[in-house]
Design goal:
Blueprint lengths: L9 H8 L4 H23 L14 H22 L1
Helix pairs in contact: 2-3
Length: about 80
């Protein structure tokens, strides 16, 4: 992310660097952030959406972004049930 000019908190950078699987940890962080935003927005009646895209050429990262889309869709559907 930093090579794209995006800054992240130092604690998060450390969590990612020291995780056994940076990609899995990144996915968990993304899903956690979206879950928090979705819960807040649902409580306040605020429409919410997100954009997920892969900027990598590695197959596992592209597949992870597709899985993230599915996971976010499931979270969204669960709040509507």
């Amino acid at each position: 992310m930093q090579w794209l000019g995006i800054s992240i908190p130092k604690w998060l950078e450390n969590d990612l660097i020291h995780s056994g699987d940076i990609l899995a940890k990144s996915m968990d962080v993304c899903k956690g952030i979206f879950a928090e935003l979705l819960q807040y927005a649902s409580e306040k009646g605020i429409p919410v959406g997100c954009n997920i895209e892969s900027v990598a050429i590695r197959k596992d990262e592209i597949e992870a972004s597709l899985q993230l889309v599915r996971d976010v869709q499931q979270m969204f559907v669960a709040t509507r049930a």
